[in-house]
Write a structure and sequence with these properties.
331 residues, alpha/beta, 31% helix, 13 strands, binds oxa(dethia)-CoA
Length: 331
């Protein structure tokens, strides 16, 4: 029986409000529009040398401390991110592995956008099933402020920076008996053009041409339509597999993309919106970091308690989507 042994998160100190975006950063927008279209009032933005690796390290350290686990006992470090410290290599996970002193671990980045943390947990579950005596650190970390086009009001208003982490390992003998975890994970590459970041090998090199535009692009409406169908579908699939009703889930900890997506999903499922945990108002959308940041907040404020049936659900660029259903903290 696996268990989430501890959680941790980190949000940079600097807070940028919607009013700041219009008044300080001269973006043609306003608090009323952003809040009514997304549920976001403010987001945290990394400053100076703080970036994906340092934020991931701080969240990872907090999770290790809450778990009471020595970094030397970690055998696997996964960092789910689409805003890595360097452009693809070296992996952010290797920098974090070194910074945390996880000297006995192998480390890699996992790129599945906003579903990255859920995919990462499933990878850790698989690895720890093969190696039951080991422990894994799964982190979601994003510094999206560095890849956003701050002149594009249709995308930049949504995103924020931060990191969240969990330590996974064996539960003590006899704990969590009868608990079972279900997963439903999918990708649909036919929607690859809906959201992404150019500047990879996709475009042929033209020697002497200006630098490629590497900012994040997004078909907001398209992603929205995809999300409001996907979130209820994933939850229903998980419940079908587990043989339970949606109403049996005590709390859903979803990817924090847009409050309207959660509202629509709750209506489609006939499930109370209050049981969708949300901190998007003050974090914005932190992509792969949003679920572990929300989970850590939910554990700390008592919204997630041992024995509760909870579900994670992620969706994002790729397209990727999926969820896990577990009896917290047993995985
Ligand atoms: O993690 C997954 C990542 N992505 C998502 O979750 C994105 C999902 N999509 C969304 O959240 C929404 O599509 C947005 C919040 C991004 C946009 O909301 P929308 O209702 O789809 O707006 P829209 O892009 O269709 O734009 C409607 C109008 C346009 O004006 P006109 O052409 O109707 O005059 C935009 O120019 O709103 C305008 N607009 C804005 N106005 C003020 C777009 N962004 C802004 C803005 N402030 N920030």
């Amino acid at each position: 029986m696996l268990k989430i042994l501890g959680t941790g998160s980190y949000l940079p100190e600097k807070v940028v409000t919607n009013d700041d975006l219009s008044k300080v950063y001269n973006l043609d927008t306003n608090d009323e529009w952003i809040y009514s279209h997304s549920g976001i009032h403010s987001r945290h933005i990394a400053e100076g040398t703080d970036a994906t690796a340092s934020m991931a390290t701080k969240a990872g350290k907090a999770a290790l401390e809450s778990a009471g686990v020595d970094p030397l006992d970690i055998a696997l470090v996964i960092v789910a991110t689409v805003s890595p410290e360097y452009h693809a290599l070296p992996s952010t996970a290797c920098i974090v592995q070194d910074a945390l002193g996880c000297k006995n671990a192998y480390a890699f980045d996992l790129m599945a956008a906003c579903s990255g943390f859920v995919f990462g947990l499933e990878q850790a579950r698989g690895y720890l099933t093969l190696h039951p005596d080991k422990k894994a650190l799964v982190i979601g970390a994003e510094c999206l402020s560095r890849i956003c086009d701050w002149t594009d009001r249709g995308t930049c208003i949504l995103f924020g920076d931060g990191a969240g982490a969990v330590v996974v390992g064996q539960a003590p003998e006899g704990e969590g008996e009868g608990a079972k975890t279900y997963s439903y994970l999918r990708s649909d590459g036919s929607g690859a053009e809906m959201m992404g970041r150019k500047g990879g090998t996709h475009d042929p090199v033209v020697i002497g041409a200006p630098a490629k535009n590497e900012w994040l692009f997004m078909n907001g409406r398209g992603v929205f339509q995809f999300a409001i169908k996907t979130v209820p579908m994933v939850i229903e699939e998980l419940c079908k597999e587990a043989g339970i009703q949606v109403s049996d889930i005590d709390l859903i900890v979803p990817h924090q993309a847009n409050m309207r997506i959660l509202d629509s999903s709750a209506k489609r499922l006939g499930y109370p919106l209050e049981k969708f945990y949300s901190n998007i108002e003050t974090t914005g959308n932190t992509s792969g970091a949003s679920i572990p940041i929300a989970l850590d907040a939910a554990v700390k404020d008592g919204s997630v308690k041992p024995g509760m049936k909870i579900s994670f659900v992620g969706f994002g660029a790729g397209l990727t989507y999926g969820g896990l259903l577990m009896t917290y903290p047993y995985l």
